[in-house]
């Protein structure tokens, strides 16, 4: 049986990021195997996230903005992000950058193939690739598919289709991305558009829904066409690229350490923020914690689970999901109140779970009281029933 010190199962965003942080740590001397079924040669997704100052991927950030436009129910306007910048990173740039960086790591092997089996054995975690078993004391797994529809949890999906379009006329302000434009038929869901401009004539326009049911492909495309015709003075336009995604928005408890030698990371590890679907920055943060822990303990890393203030923030995710899933208040108005009644920096800090307890209470106070109280009551009732 082949042996490595570390196996990274899945070389997407989380697997590659982990290899990157390992390459910058004393652990770089360990033998590392990264396995993925794909070579990652397509621009299959675009990551947006917010950050203060420069991050580890600054050199490949495609666009960044200091203000965003928001269109809601009782409020629309431009929001200054203060110390934050909203950043966009193209999948293809990330994959190329990572593969170039990782070539510098002499002890890293990259193998392309299907992992047909992953199991914890006494001597370590085992993956089977091309019929061959490979073992390591620690396997980081980003290939595990999270269960959906677990009873007693909220299981929404964030699903979206986006087009990169080139327009006949100048119609985008390169300094003003639209982040959450709710001026579209809500159909009792949460539906909005992102418009992320590359220049005056090119942008990623993305139709996004939070609900339980993925649509037929044409339904997203009809909505994209209607939005472009109604809200952009584009003239004719050409579709350059398409992206489609489904991100779980669930508060199902995820086991990051399901067994002795296996650590789940990325979406598989439940790193997605349940109430927003944002995963990129949390993954960076959590993986840095894992690498630091492995450096000091030399053990299979276990991420410290949050104590009271963080636990409270995570409970707020469940409250918001409960409001959205049970349609207790129109979602467009919930997000409008959030941005109307709080400075954007506080909202971003809140979504990063970096706010103080007082700021959390200010956020809670900005929400429609009745529906949120009902959601809290419902959650307490459900927990009490299942104690
Ligand atoms: C289109 C799209 C846009 C997104 N945009 C954002 C965004 O703007 N901001 C944000 O924060 N999050 C975003 N997300 C959510 C999240 O950041 C991404 O899904 C991210 O790629 C998750 O990283 P991951 O490593 O967990 O999964 P992935 O990047 O999907 O990596 C998993 C890897 O495992 C491989 N794999 C799976 N099974 C096997 C197997 N059996 N054998 C071998 N290889 C296997 C896959 O090929 C893949 O490369 C987006 C998601 C999508 C789909």
TrEMBL record:
Protein's name according to its UniProt entry: Lycopene cyclase
Lineage, top ranks: Bacteria, Pseudomonadati, Bacteroidota, Cytophagia, Cytophagales
Organism: Hymenobacter gummosus
Pfam families according to UniProt: Lycopene_cycl (PF05834)
